[in-house]
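Hi U.,

Before I forget, here's the chain from the pilot set. I'm dumping it here mostly so it's searchable later in email.
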Amino acid sequence: MRIGLALPQYDYSVPGESPLRFETIVEHARRAEAWGYDSLWLSDHLFLDLAKYGGPRTRYGAFEPLATLAALASHVSRPRLGTLVLCEALRPPVVLAKTLATLDRVCGGRLDVGLGAGWYEPEYAAIGLPFPSPGVRVTRLKEAAEIVGGLLGGEPLTYPGTYLQAHRAVIDPPAEQTPRPPLFVGGKGDRVIRTAVDVADGWNTCWVWTPGDYARRLDVVRAACEDAGRDPEQFWRSLGLYALVGEDERDLARRFERLRAATPAGVLDGVTLDEWRTGRLVGTVEQVREQQAEWAELGVETLIVGAGAVPFQVGALDDVELLATALTGSPVG
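Structure:
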């Protein structure tokens, strides 16, 4: 199992720092590389509020992921760099494919590409696009994935989609990786999973999952693979989970209270540690290793940890370090 880290990206991501500085992202990336993380990840929003998570409706600033990953490529040399996930509506797919191919060359063939249907209505308003129905968004996602995936494969493409098109488009120079950078689709619904099986190399879902609930989603994956004639064991499964580890139960409780204090108001108000454990990678080092083994048995190949209580938050760097100790075996210190 490969272990990834969701990097700080938003103006709420690091306690006491707003706006977030690029130098802080670099520091987290360098530390993660030193501690043995296999991949580093950014999400894709123009801005983000935390009302969905019980937090404030404040619109927090965000670093654009593709430009930021390109800049990070010169600061870390080993980890793969990925998008978790790109919102289909924010970029024309041919332009996106061109950017991704260039980024793959800039980072030396270390790019993983995640695409999603989009869910955050305020940013649709910001770009002047009426918020589509879920069905339309998934259709647009499939069309975008087919265009992006096809172009990243290096061949000219004409694509007469319902919502998105390409006409004799070609990406030159092509991506570094062959046949293309790995492409996955993010989400949890049946249509999204079927789309991933039909047009991508894998599937991701985040950030709160119990093994039982995830196993039921895998039933959909297997059925979709059977319909498509694909081997489900060759279909890349990545999973994002909020995570917190302590050296023992007392240390875990201390770290949870520290995370509560560092998290925007409302998100963890009234939430106990026992309640927060459910669906997250939380426990002592030994307990988290047992949970990791359970996820490995379910076929999760890439486990991406979010070291906070909301997406792309990092409560404290030493939480990231101890997670590495638990999940990668790297020594503390």
